[in-house]
Amino acid sequence: MDDDAGDASPPPAAAGGGGATAAQSRDMAASPTSSRSVTETVNGSHRFVIQGYSLAKGMGVGKHIASETFSVGGYQWAVYFYPDGKNPEDNSAYVSVFIALASEGTDVRALFELTLLDQSGKGKHKVHSHFDRSLESGPYTLKYRGSMWGYKRFFRRTALETSDFLKDDCLKINCTVGVVVSTIDYSRPHSILVPDSDIGYHFGTLLDNHEGVDVVLNVGGERFHAHKLVLAARSTVFRSKFFDDEDGERNEPGENDDVQEIVIDDMEPKVFKAMLHFIYRDTLVDDNELGGSSSEGSIFDTLAAKLLAAADKYDLARLRLLCESYLCKAISVATVASTLALADRHHAMELKAVCLKFAAENLSAVIRTEGFDYLKDNCPSLQSEILRTLAGCEEECSSGGKSQSVWGQLSDGGDTSGRRVRPRT
């Protein structure tokens, strides 16, 4: 800044902006976001014409003529012209010009430019610009209303009065203010919250209200009302039953509007009801129902096992997986063999793989269960599969430095308590 520049002290040099740290995405599959900090100036100009300069002389040191206020960057500004100068030490040898913050504001950062216009038409204006020096010192900070930036020794009075800047006792001063503003440009992916699917609720209501039913399924004397299209859409078995004739020709829906009754004699009513619940609602029935078993406590007698069999029979792949997942949670030393037989019988391959691995890893205890005896009498091939799985486990263990092999467990008698062991999958 020139030696005669104004009252306002420049702020410290602008510090480099730190990069914003990105928040970790909740959904790892979501697109990455980005942000950009943009710092720029909002510029505005005002022309201040001082008519009757000679009459303003002699008003006194420190006395000024003010322009009308003007707005730039959300703040009000004014130009102050001191005909006898602002600094008493200069003895009225200079005129002073300042730009003042005329509204409330705290730490307003801005760049400034003052131009005394050459009125001869030669274009030799006197320009004092802060814009072209912003890299050297940064913007000025005006801390409160009345803070100013400018020059106490803007122009020597004797030189001004004989120059082309004064014409017809008139001076013209252009003022430009650039208020510094910072914004964040954030490429936020626009999104609208979508609730979970409620199609299962609506289809379930359709089932409960018997609205538009066109088929009755008689299961063990209990009649269930349903919709052919819904059943056919979910199960290829039902689709074939309802819409293929005996010669394999396809019948169009709606050809026979009479309510058809079909007898199903190989399933209990409670199992069929649970299967209908899934077909319409796409969910399993309550856990308390699924785990209910007969007095003998066999896994085959639970609703979950019977529903698995129904899923296999009616080609309901998702229902089968849901049942597999449910039954997998209940695997223990006492139940793994019978669960393995159940999985093998109804093509539950995920459940079967878990059972094989669990049985192999806990074989010394499993072979002493009633379920293993059941395998020996009814599913000898599954015993062979357990042994093949055991051989694979032994190969893994041999490279892992296990202290005692599964064969060692067998020779030592192992765990005969039948306690539940967590499946390791």
TrEMBL record:
UniProt-listed PROSITE patterns = BTB, MATH
Q: Where is this region: Disordered?
A: 1-41, 398-425
Against SMART domains, the record matches this protein to: BTB (SM00225), MATH (SM00061)
Regions of compositional bias (Polar residues) in chain numbering: 31-41
Q: Which pathway does this chain act in? A: Protein modification; protein ubiquitination
Question: What Pfam family does this protein match (any one)?
Answer: BTB
Q: From which residue to which does any coiled coil extend?
A: none
The source's superkingdom equals Eukaryota
Residues in BTB domain copies: 213-288
Q: Gene3D superfamilies, alphabetically? A: 1.25.40.420, Apoptosis, Tumor Necrosis Factor Receptor Associated Protein 2, Chain A, Potassium Channel Kv1.1, Chain A
Q: Which InterPro entries match?
A: BACK_BPM_SPOP (IPR056423), BPM1-6 (IPR045005), BPM_C (IPR034090), BTB/POZ_dom (IPR000210), MATH/TRAF_dom (IPR002083), SKP1/BTB/POZ_sf (IPR011333), TRAF-like (IPR008974)
Gene Ontology terms describing biological process: cellular response to salt stress; protein ubiquitination
Q: Which residues form the MATH domain?
A: 43-177
As for what it does, the entry says: May act as a substrate-specific adapter of an E3 ubiquitin-protein ligase complex (CUL3-RBX1-BTB) which mediates the ubiquitination and subsequent proteasomal degradation of target proteins.
Instruction: Report the sequence similarity comment from the record.
Output: Belongs to the Tdpoz family.
Protein name in UniProt: BTB domain-containing protein
